[in-house]
Amino acid sequence: MGSLKLAVGCDHGGFKLKEEIRKLLQEKGYDFKDFGTFSEESVDYPDIALEVARAVRDGHFDRGILICGTGIGIGIVANKLPGIRAALCHDTFSARASREHNNANILTMGERVIGPGLARDIVNIWLETDFAGGRHARRVQKISDIETSNNDP
Ligand code: RB5
Questions:
Q1: What is the total count of domains within the chain?
Q2: Ligand 1 pocket residue status of 70, Cβ below 6 Å
Q3: Which of 10, 40, 104, 125 could form a disulfide with 98 if both were Cys (CB 3.0 to 4.6 A apart)?
């Protein structure tokens, strides 16, 4: 039974995988909000990514999961927002490391890249892994410093 509050979103390219992940989150008892899209009709991934990323950045949700065809576009958008650390993970090693090392607060995946079985494993690991802190905290703090600096990075 998960205690995290999650925001989930996708474009048409990620709709079927998002439905799979919805089932998983329901099975595991996670509290989540589905920001859509709700069919395979074409939509623009920046719109959904922005909505989910804002909701996570503003603290309404602990973490987010975004799915498009590749996981790339939706992650590029999410990472435009200071405070968002979106990680594209198509393997379980990266999923674990993105939490332990980078304290990733959004997971992105591509429905056209991996199958539902692997995606489920990735989500389970990503949700169950804590940030390791220590030397990684210093590095993540440096990311925040870049975001808040008045100097052009
Ligand atoms: C939509 O065709 C596709 O471009 C989108 O789902 C995503 O893969 C973009 O990065």
A1: 1
A2: yes
A3: 104
